[in-house]
Amino acid sequence: MTATNLKGVAAGAGAGVAPGAGANPAAFQFVRDLAGALSTGEVALPSYPQVALRLQKLLADESTDADRLVRVLGAEPVLAARIVAMANSAALNPAGRKTADLRTAVVLMGHDALRTTAAAFAMAQIRHAAEYQSVATQVAALWHESAARAAMSYVVARHTESFPPDTAMLAGMLSGVGKLYLLARASKLPLLLADECGFQIIVRDWQANIAQALLESWRIAPEITDAVRGWGAAPENSGSNPSLADVLSCADLLASYRLQPELLQGLIAEHRPMQRLGLKAGCAQLLEDSALELAALRDALNG
């Protein structure tokens, strides 16, 4: 779906919203505001760190060199330290040759791994922002879920050789960005948050469109944007060719139930993304073989 189509969807949604009997007026206004933001293209994540935004835009230009990236990162020591930690993780540095040099880390990681680390840093900053204390618990949970999904996406993509692991990891880290935006906007609306069921319906109905608008504004590759938008619906897809959304869907299932092997096995049997990726019979071995790698990636992303 293009940005133009998104505006059409938003305009239609805004026009069609009408509070029924007993409807939450705060939810009605919130949805109207969302539709307005999408229709005008004015979707920006509140309090998203400027250094992370600047880095995302630089990384969208393949001609950006390491020296320029290092200059930007030098303004934010915490993000720089995370990038060095990620470069030294077991997944990205299997040879175990440790580096403390930021420039070397930037060169070794590549653009998608850098984007992933910047997104994890930004989510952590939002989590600790004073203005979002009313949703701090939800943002923290989303941050950890996204990091776990990103790490598992890396492992699934590498194991199946279906997509570049760094690209899959980035898609996993960005997979909750639509929900993050909705939480940030709702943080100042206690009446909306008090209706937990109603708010979750809004998240279900709006997070995909919001995520697409945000990622397009950050110039994220269409392949990743499409996967973030569609991974929740991947199990219903009837096609035979695997997609990056399938990687995210499999990663989410494995990350959510990796400590419940019997339940996981039953869910795998009917999971179409698993079948398309050829993972149906090998998940237990995949989790066992990748335990250290997964832990290292989660630790690096969670900081």
Q: What fraction strand?
A: under 5%
Cα-atom Rg, whole angstroms? Answer: 19 Å
Q: Strand-and-helix sequence, N→C?
A: HHHHHHHHHHHHHHHHHH
CATH homologous superfamily designation of the largest domain: Hypothetical protein af1432
Shape: globular
Question: What is the CATH architecture assignment of the largest domain?
Answer: Orthogonal Bundle
Average per-residue pLDDT, rounded, comes to 86
Give a summary of the structure in a few sentences:
The chain has about 300 residues and is mostly helical.
Verbal overview:
- This protein is mostly helical.
- The protein folds into two domains: 3-16 and 25-40, no CATH class; 50-302, Hypothetical protein af1432.
- Helices cover 71% and strands 0% of the residues.
- The chain contains 18 helices and no strands.
- 46% of the residues are buried.
- The model is unreliable at 8-22 (pLDDT under 50).
Topology:
Layout: H1 3-16, H2 25-40, H3 50-59, H4 66-73, H5 77-87, H6 102-109, H7 111-128, H8 136-160, H9 165-174, H10 177-186, H11 190-194, H12 196-217, H13 222-230, H14 244-257, H15 261-269, H16 272-277, H17 283-289, H18 291-302
What structural keywords apply?
globular, Hypothetical protein af1432, 2 domains
